[in-house]
Each structure stands twice: as structure tokens, then as C-alpha cells.
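The protein record filed below.
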Amino acid sequence: MLWITGLSSVACKVDQVNCRLWTQSLLPGFYMKGDFVIGGIFSFHHYLKLEQNAYTRQPPQPRCSGSMDFRDLRFARAMEFTIHEINNRTDLLPGIKLGYEIHDSCAAMPMAIKGAFQLTNGVESLFNNTASCLNSTAVAVPAVIGESGSTPSISMARILGLFGIPQVSHYATCACLSDKRQFPSFFRTIPSDHHQAAALARMVKHFGWTWIGAVRSDSDYGNNGMTSFLKAAQEEGICVEYSEAYYRTQPRSKVERVANVIRRSTARVIVAFMASGDMKILLEELVRQPPPPLQWIGSETWITDPDFLQFNMFAGAIGFGVPRSVIPGLHEFLLDLSPAQALKSPLLTEFWESSFSCSLTGFSESMRECDGNEDIRALQNPYTDTSQLHITNMVYKATYAIAHAIHGIICNDTQCDKSIQFEPWQIIHQLKRVSFTTKNGFQVTFDANGDPAANYELINWQVKKNGGLDFMTVGHYDSSRLRGQEFSITKAISWLGGRRECPQSVCSEICPLGTRKAVQKGRPVCCYDCVPCGEGEFSNRTNSLDCVQCPPEFWPSTKQDSCLPKPVEFLSWEDTLSIILTAFSITGALIAVCVAAVFYRHRTTPIVRANNSELSFLLLFSLALCFLCSLTFIGQPSEWSCMLRHTAFGITFVLCISCVLGKTIVVLMAFRATLPGSNVMKWFGPPQQRLSVLVFTLIQVIICVLWLTISPPFPFKNLKHYKESIILECRLGSAIGFWAVLGYIGFLALLCFVLAFLARNLPDNFNEAKLITFSMLIFCAVWITFIPAYVSSPGKFTVAVEIFAILASSFGLIVFIFVPKCFIIVFRPEQNTKKHVIGKVPSKAL
């Protein structure tokens, strides 16, 4: 349809030798003849007035409507100024006069296409030639500057590309125009939106905004730009709450819906990739019912547009714009305008009448007639404002680029030949090669895609002292720099409401240390819950995706933000429990020594002599060792202490039980010896008793030696029993060796218990078998209960249970075997007689 619309303006009918356009030509807004006429198309208006067509007469020509865009008027006049400046130069196109033909596209595709066709056909509506006009290949312009918008530029580029006419845009930023397969003749002096989208995404990431809203123009510019931005934002981890589109020709209900989405959103940052015309309508709608304060992020189309300085809600807005510049002489050229000069151009006439609210023609009933006292220098509008020339400089560069391309074709080192015939594709070839610096110091080159290097200024809308808004450059972006170094901030930024603190815009607050992010189901990744790290895990970064498991010997801190060494747990000498057990151990040893002293002092008394004093002293010695061997279990385990504690315990206890077993056998043998004709005592006299103790003990020594040789106990860090601490313990090495030691002790104790039980009722006033029976009963009970307690006790309490078993069994032996004898020796000496011992005197129960 666009192609047919465009062709309608150039279709011609043959009348003899004349070729006439079917429709009326567009009147240029600005026109000047020259040896080479450069075309220009700008968006002086933003609406196309279309009338209902009944097709009963020739359709009227489309016309622009709405208020004039004074900034685009400045762009067009900057093109005029640049051509005049070039014509006055002697080093560029000397002797050549450039002309211009500038049209209004109304920011609409039909008018842009119509203008493009007109620039390819010429300005005359009647073409005379002796040959048919169908064979004519005349082209009016060698190159075209424009359009201001991406969508009209795309339509123009498709038409002009068919004729090979180069188009150099000053403001069309759509990244799609870099595709040389579709747009082989398109060039531009403004960077592609591909770079701007990446710059905006990195800027949003730089300020920590992860939850944003997005609005765009429903056009090629907005849709392509926003697509590039959203892709770059996703790579940076930024989430978009909403993405709405609007175009100025759509129904009002559409812009109301977009405005309501903005008002209800939770995102406090909004990225607007919109053309100025669309943005203005959206803002007018938002002003009716202002949303909560928003941090606006603007694309270069409107972020430097002074028309928006009237909207106070934009205070603190930031965005990327092309670098500002100064064009010497432009300000004076723009102000060198009189009413008479304004009447020469319909666009200037409209500008004058709109600026001063008067009529130059005198045919208006609603406005007064201009009286000539109007002072253009007193105006303050985008046309006269040359304090920050951003896009205007792009027009300046585009015009110079075309001039340099023409110069490269028709000029040599000394002169130019305007009679040289050349094709438009030759201009394209020269544009690819141009490289020069403008008078105001800007480098002009094009890459393989017809794009310049991306270089932006970070623009911030700051509140002035008088309360108004103004543009301030606070940073830069240069795509030619290394990755990660393109973006820099050079000045303080004024945020929304004039505040100095950067606003926050996140879906979820930052997860603190010791937590991880858990994405909420069905929502973007920026919306998450902060979940505490699991057991044994830590997180030392905010917004951590995962928690890290602490090393085996470490445990998370209370806040789970770091790993600390696990406390090492063992039965140390400083523990209260150790002190108590040590006291009992030393007390027991002292009791054994005291009993031995009592026995030694009364060694000649009947009660000591009757109870085998040699075995008694050996038993007391072994009991003292049993009490003291429990001390080897206290303290930090080492290789030597682990081997010593179990072997010392095993050997001393076997020595102790062997002595008790010997005493029990002596009782039995003594009874047998009282029978007539028995000489059993000669087979179990003192030498045999010593030998039995030695043999029983030697067997345990052999078991311990084998245990220590094959697989001895060793210190071990137990990391599994307690997750938050390390238990330093002695591993058994060979479990068989450990249980063999205990089993042998248990066997001897059981044997001793059985023998003592059998001898408990032997006729003797002081039958030691009864005492041994009770002591062995206690001994066996302690060690039987020790086994489950030992297996189930955690950490250092395992060692404590073993020490308790040693002490309890040792106290059982010393109390039941020796305390009654000591009591008689010390407190009942009258019973310490031979008659009483052999049962000749009736005894009283103790």
C-alpha cells in the first residue's frame, strides 16, 4: 500500500512530448537553486490531516496539521545555514553552489514517501523531452537529509534505495536501519539505538534498579529500540514490571490505559523509548492525575527536547543524548529573520505568526495583524535556543558529509568541474570513505553499516535557582572504550524531586548476608523471597543465589554470613566434670595407699595374715594404678595418650582381677585343706599364686601388644556426631582388640564371681569370699551397664562414662574387700584375734 501511495505522486501521463504529473507537486518549505540541490525532509508537524474521500472527484492533497515543532524548524534552518557556509568556503567545493529543497513529512509515512518521490522527480510538474518520459532517468537531488523519525526514514530508505540515492539521517536511530541488505543507501550521523539500548541497560544496572517500567512508541523506533533495551536489560539481570506501547494516532482510550498502568505500578523507575510527539500526549494525560513520583529514563529523542522542560514531573530525569556542541554563526543566522523574509516561506510564516500571535498576511480574523515591532531576539523557544545543540549538530555533520562526498567525485586537488555527470551510487561510495573534522571539532566517519561511533552524554534534568528545569551533562558513554569502561559519571546527579539520594526501585529488598534468593513462583526473577541458609551453609554476599556449604571443620556463624572454625570438644583438664573425676581418681588412689599403709602397719595381725597379705598388697597396688589410669583419659587425645589409656586400663584391671581371683582360689583351697587327708595347699601356695597372677596378666599384655601392633588406637576428629563442633576422640583402631581386652577382663571377673559365690557359705567367721562376691557383683554390674552407656554417650561424655566405670568398679573392689578389714583393724582391734578369725568366738554382724 505504501508503494502505491508513493507512486501516485509520480505517475505521469504522456501528452505529445510533454510528461505531466498526475497529482500536484508538494511545495517545499525551503528552496534554493544551485548546481547540486540537496534534499531535506523534516517533521515540522506531527499530524497528517486526512479528509474523507467519496471518490466523486480528485482526492485532495494530504496536509499537515497541529502545532509546529520549532525544534525541527531549527534543524531545517541549520541545514540552510550549513549549505550557505559551504558555499562560502574555498577549500570545499570551490566554485560550486549547493542548493536545497526541504519538505515537511508531518512525521507520517505517506508524506515522507511522497516527499522522497518528489525529490527523485524534481520540482517541475511538467517535463518536456523529445523522447517519452517513460525513458527519462533524470534525478533532481544527489542526496537527501532526513527524516527526523525512524518509521518515516524506513519508508524513505526503501524508496530511495531503489534509485540508489543516498539518505543521511540526523535523527533516525532505529537499529534496523543498519541492515545494509534492506537499506543499502542509508547513512546517519546519530548513533544506532543498539548502542543506546545497551547504554541505558548498563546505566540502570549501575544505579541498582532491578524493577522498572517501560513505555515506548508503537512504531519502528519505539518497538525496535525497546526490544534491544529489554534484551540488554535481561542480560544485566533487570526485570520489567510492564512494557506498554502507544502511538499518537491511536484512540484516547489507549493512552488512558497506558497512564493507568503507570499510576498503579510498583516500579519507581520508568524507561521511556518514545518519540517526542507520543511522549507529549502521554505526559498531558499523566498531568491530569499525577502518579507517584517517578524516576524517568529517557531516550535521546525527547531527553534533550526543551518543549518538555515545562513538565515539572520530569525533575531528575536522566537519559543519553548526543554530545552538545556549538555551531559558530548559527545563532545569528536563526535570528536574522524579518517579517519580509518570513513571508517567503510558508513554514517561516507559520512560525512567525505562532510565535507572536499575529498575522503576517492580514487575512486572519482571530489574530491581529503584525505591525513590524515583533522582536525575534526576545523569543524564548526551541527555535532560538542554541545553548545546547545536540541534534542540530547531527544535521550540520550530515550536510557536510554529503558535500565532502560530492567534492570527492567532481573535484581534484585544484578545482571542481560541475559539468561532470555522476550517478547517485557514486555518492554512496564516497560517503563510505569520508573522514573529516567539522569546523566545530567533531569527527565524521561511517562504519560498514553507515553508522557513526556511539558517543553519548548522560543528560540530567536539574532544577535551577528560579525553579525551572535545565539540561545538565553529568556523564558520558563511549562505545569505543573497553567493555565495562564505556560508562562514566563526572558530576553529581539530581534525582526525582531534586533529591541527592538515588531512588530505589526493586521488586524485593536486597537479601542480607546469611540468606539466599528464592524466586517467587510465576513472577520475574527480580521478585524473590529471602530464605535463610540451610544448616551448615553460609552466604557472605547480599542477594546471593545460593548458599555455600562450610568446609567440614567449619560451621556457620550465628548470622550465617561466614564460616568459623568448629570448637574442638574433648574432656579437658579445665572442665568441671574432669576436675570432679580427677578428684575421685586421686582420692581412690590415696585410699588404696592408706589401706596399704594400715595393712603394712598391722601386717603381723591375724586378719592381715589370714587374708594373704602378699596378694592384698599387690591388689592395693593394682587398684591404685586403676584409679590413676583414669587420668590418662583426660586431656587432648594424642597418639601416645590414645594407646596408653586403653592398654594401661586393660593391664591394670587384669592385674587387679587376677589378684582377686587368686584370693578367691586361696579361700577355696583353704577350705579344701581343712578336710582330712587333703594336701591341696601345696599345689597353690605363694609361688603358684604369684605365677597365676603373672600368667593372667601376661595374657592381657599379649592381647594389648597385638592390638597396638596391628591397629592401635589413634586420635580422630569426629565431624559427624555434632554438626556444629568437632569431637576430638580416640578411635579404637581395631574394634576386635578393644573388645578382646574388655572381654578378657569380663571373663576373669565372671570367673572370680562364680568361684566367690560358690565359697560364700564356707564355715569361717571371716569368709573373704562373701566380700569378693559383692565386689565382683558390683564390678560386673558396672561394666555391663557401661557397654550401652559407652555406645550411646556423645562426645566427651563417652570418655567420662569410661572413667566413671573404671572409678566405680575400683571403688567397689576397695570398699567391699578392704574397708571391712580396715574397720576391724582400726576400730575393733578386739576382733583382730586368731580365735575370732578362725571362728572360735561368736561374731557379731558388722
Q: What stands out?
A: The longest helix spans residues 639-673. Residues 1-16, 134-138, 840-846 have pLDDT under 50 and may be disordered.
